Amino acid sequence: MNRRNVIKSLAILPVSMAVPGALSAAVPLPSIAAKRKSVYEAIGVKPILNARGTVTVIGASKVLPEVRDAMDAAIHEFVQIDELMDGVGRRLAELMGTESGCVTAGASAAITAATAGCVTGGDPDKIWMIPNITGMKDEVVITSYSRSAYDAGCKAVGVRMIQVANVIELQAALGPRTAMVYLLAGEESERGALSLKVISEITKPLGIPILVDAAAEGPEKPNPHISQGADLVAYSGGKYLRGPQCAGLLIGRKDLIMAARMNTGPHHGFGRGFKVGREEVIGMLTAAEMWFKRDHEAEKKLWNTRLESIANRIKSVPGLTTLIKQPVGRSNPSPDLIISWDNTRIPYIGQEVEDLLWNGNPRISVGSAGSYFQPNQKTSILVNSSQMSEGDEKIVANLIFEILSKPQPAAATVAAATTDLSGQWDVETKFYASTVSQTFMIEQKGDAFEGTYTGSIGPRDLTGTIHGTDVLIRSTYGVDGARVHSFFAGKVTGDTMEGELSLGEYGKATWKAWRHVYKMK
């Protein structure tokens, strides 16, 4: 297979993770001589130069020096955790201008704790009944624009998510079983037809609380979400707050904060696993304190200066254009450099460039490199400088210049399909600790095909290619906030196919498929 078809067939993972050597054999990987000691390299893990931003899977943000110092100080003394949380709650109330607050094990944990608090009200009997919440308030209303992988934080408690798209549906959905309303902060929640303000005018008279997920934002005083009617707001500690990555904040109504706290560690029951250590609590509080002291305008100026430096370094490459895109709204408040090129001069797609940087030395993450999303088939990449260290922008610029100024031509030979895969296939997939029966329904035209892949969660579309005997099948399930990417790579022999299945963040599996034999009784 040629380089282009390998890349275009990917559904998940950087190419380096899905097809080892697919590019390295054709293109020399960039490298630099600079090396520094690393605790990660000591255990065989390659460090990353973060040119992507505050993304969890590559380590999120750089912890502030003040946070590191506070965490180190906290380690040297012991404290009763509930008393610590009480003290931190009082200080967060002062900082945020809300009734109370608490430190959680991340924004997702804040969502789960808030949901459990609204379901149980802090009643220990009910806390011990989770996830069997029969007879409790067991429904969470969610707007259509809020559906994402992150509402799994609500579903963990056992609630049923009731999705609404307009005011009429919202009014019909609210009732005695409604524990709360969950909203994802953004343009729609602030100014949409089903905004936070609109929803709160309906829910307040009914006594139904609203939780806003503002994970990628920084807090403000007065809090804009509380001002518009939210009862609780969740923030990530490991993004722009630059606190411990495994910490977050939940702020808002004191009664609901206390109920949420009862559903986290150190308390036993459902939420015991969501405990936060004393050093993380103090580190997160320090990050919140520092947020209101930091010079955010100076930080944004630095981020833009770095991106301008990169753009200036690579602007001489023929067929290349750059644009610095400024953030809009409160979420992810850092600029991106969009690097685009003329495909006739630079015969790469974005995924190929991302992969070359990922496989280089140092390993550089741009765009979606290191994650498990659909491949970047645009002729562009994104660079974010918010988590770079001094001098990183020069390294990034030089390696991007090296790749785009000396592109390698794509191979032109593609083998024709050796068979027609059309029809039903019975699939056996072996995961880490289970074997599951699945099905493919395929309609093939030439060397490409489409159809349906049915797994445990239900059916979803598939697309794929066959070149010679090499088969590539990709499929994504994205219903009700779920995010499951499947990339089947293998070979066909007669009426049998088999190979490896890449599942993105869920690892790998092996698969084998047989053409279905219809048996008439």
Automatic annotation (TrEMBL):
The keyword Signal applies. One of its GO terms (molecular function) is pyridoxal phosphate binding. Pfam families: Cys_Met_Meta_PP (PF01053). The keyword Transferase applies. Keywords: Pyridoxal phosphate, Signal, Transferase. One of its GO terms (biological process) is transsulfuration. Residues 1-25 form the signal peptide. It comes from the Bacteria. Its cofactor is pyridoxal 5'-phosphate. SUPFAM superfamilies: PLP-dependent transferases. Belongs to the trans-sulfuration enzymes family. This is L-seryl-tRNA(Ser) seleniumtransferase. The lineage of its organism: Bacteria, Pseudomonadati, Bacteroidota, Sphingobacteriia, Sphingobacteriales.
